[in-house]
Structure formats: structure tokens, C-alpha cells
Amino acid sequence: MVNNVPPIRSLEADEGDLRRLLLRALNDNQVLILSNIGGRGERVSRILQRISDTRGVPLSTLKLNAKILRELRLIRYGTLSEPDEAELTPLGRNVLSVVEDPAYRCAPLCPTRRDRPPGQVF
What we know:
The chain is mainly alpha-helical and 122 residues long. The chain is built from five helices and two strands. The protein has a domain at 15-20 and 27-99: Arc Repressor Mutant, subunit A (Orthogonal Bundle). The protein is globular, with a radius of gyration of 15 Å.
């Protein structure tokens, strides 16, 4: 127990409940970012640019969402003055393992958000 909060396993919720909760708390762009930080030694700017190019999401929107994920301690990355590779934190890896869906990965020829049926939730 940490800070008088029981571990998730002991709560009366299954992984589906937790997944739905996290998907309501995180937006599509945040899940996209989490899904595309893969330990390849890339800087966050390169990852966000690839997502923007592949999915058509404005780069400024992705930058804001990356900043939010960093504030939530789900990801780590450097600054302009001290560049460093982007990586998931342990908490970020746990969150991603619950919400991850292959449809969020940006591979070549990956469909855009506009290609998803309306109202489809991953």
C-alpha cells in the first residue's frame, strides 16, 4: 500500500475497467505519443514529427500533449539546451500496457484517424 492507497490488483476492478478509465483520462493524441515512444534513441521532436506526418495531427497539438504526458510523469525527454532521447517512464509503460492497441502505432501506410469509423474507441 502506497500513501494509504491499495494496489490496483486489490481494487474491485478488472483490466477492462482500468482500460476504459485510462482511455477516458488520456486523449487519442496522448495514446499515440505513448505508443510511438519505443526506445529507439529518438528525440521527442522526431517522434512527434513522424506522428504528425503519418496521422495529419498538427505538430503544435502533439507538442502540447507530450508536455502534458511529461508533467504526468508518463514520459521523459530532454530540452533544447540538454537534448535526450524520449522514453516511457515505468508508470508510462504500465499505462501503455493497459491501453495499447496496435492501431495507434505509426508505421508506414498506417491509417489516419480520419480513416477510423466514427465513434470507434480503442
